């Protein structure tokens, strides 16, 4: 429960580095849900284990020296739903949890201070680290972010803190950073298969004009390999913009798949 001593407890805040740690209350996106964010069931299962540990089983775990603190690292290529999963989880737990979204500079330089502040807030905390590969690489890179992450993740294993981190490239992270006890689960969020691609397309089309008449199987069959959920969303957006009065159809969707413009690519070479 929020009070004058803990004005941030139970709220969503962003941690930034403004000549020191600064917390600012933020609004969370409300449109993402487990129904429209299509990822493998194991992703939700691992996140739910973390929530249960710090919300429900912390007393039991800590009484037996097992530690309630949990870390989950989502890894995979861009556009596959990692950030969307993070948004869904944050929305689900805020109120019971304090949600702290840590921007990159604060993560690289002040993550220890963030964790210490999370402990002072009391109650369960969801600590969100986006794109950790941008500021925390292996020790060969002499990246200061690595030592900051290691220090922060080793503070108080009994703390009621669930860390949910995302990376596009887990291979760049030092093995010490992703061992059990720091990140207990490393889950790949990969490109959707045909079945999940069809579910993503159906969710996007459901309430659009003409959407229910689309032959989703034909559209999905035309998608090239390694098409992300973000790619499918852009295909649908372009079909809405190019269709008559915003109506989507199998033909407009296939045209957008075929022209490939849904994948923004910089031209090769230099302009002289």
UniProtKB/TrEMBL annotation:
One of its GO terms (biological process) is proteolysis. One of its GO terms (molecular function) is ATP hydrolysis activity. Residues 68-193 form the AAA+ ATPase domain. The keyword DNA damage does not apply. Coiled coil: none annotated. The keyword Hydrolase applies. InterPro entries: 26S_Proteasome_ATPase, AAA+_ATPase, ATPase_AAA_core, ATPase_AAA_CS, P-loop_NTPase. SMART domains: AAA (SM00382). It is an enzyme of class 3 (hydrolase). Its EC number is 3.4.24.-. Keywords: ATP-binding, Hydrolase, Metalloprotease, Nucleotide-binding, Protease. Belongs to the AAA ATPase family. This is ATP-dependent zinc metalloprotease FtsH. The lineage of its organism: Bacteria, Bacillati, Actinomycetota, Actinomycetes, Mycobacteriales. The gene is ftsH_3.
């Amino acid at each position: 429960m929020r009070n004058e001593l803990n004005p941030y407890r139970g709220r969503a805040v962003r941690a930034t580095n403004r000549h020191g740690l600064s917390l600012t209350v933020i609004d969370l996106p409300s449109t993402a849900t487990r129904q429209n964010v299509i990822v493998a069931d194991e992703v939700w299962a691992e996140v739910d284990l973390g929530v249960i540990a710090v919300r429900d089983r912390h007393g039991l775990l800590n009484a037996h020296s097992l530690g309630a603190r949990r870390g989950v690292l989502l890894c995979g290529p861009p556009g596959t739903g990692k950030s969307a999963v993070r948004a869904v989880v944050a929305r689900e737990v805020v109120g019971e949890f304090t949600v702290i979204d840590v921007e990159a500079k604060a993560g690289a330089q002040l993550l220890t201070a963030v964790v210490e502040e999370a402990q002072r807030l009391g109650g369960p905390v969801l600590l969100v680290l986006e794109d950790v590969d941008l500021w925390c690489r292996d020790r060969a890179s002499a990246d200061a972010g690595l030592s900051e992450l290691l220090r922060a993740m080793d503070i108080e294993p009994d703390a009621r803190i669930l860390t949910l981190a995302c990376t596009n490239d887990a291979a760049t992270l030092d093995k010490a950073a992703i061992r059990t006890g720091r990140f207990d689960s490393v889950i790949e969020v990969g490109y959707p298969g045909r079945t999940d691609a069809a579910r993503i397309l159906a969710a996007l089309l459901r309430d659009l004009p003409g959407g229910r008449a689309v032959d989703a199987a034909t559209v999905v069959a035309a998608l090239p390999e390694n098409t992300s959920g973000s790619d499918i969303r852009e295909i649908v957006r372009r079909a809405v913009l190019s269709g008559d009065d915003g109506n989507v159809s199998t033909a407009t969707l296939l045209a957008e798949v075929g022209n490939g413009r849904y994948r923004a690519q910089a031209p090769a070479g230099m302009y002289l």
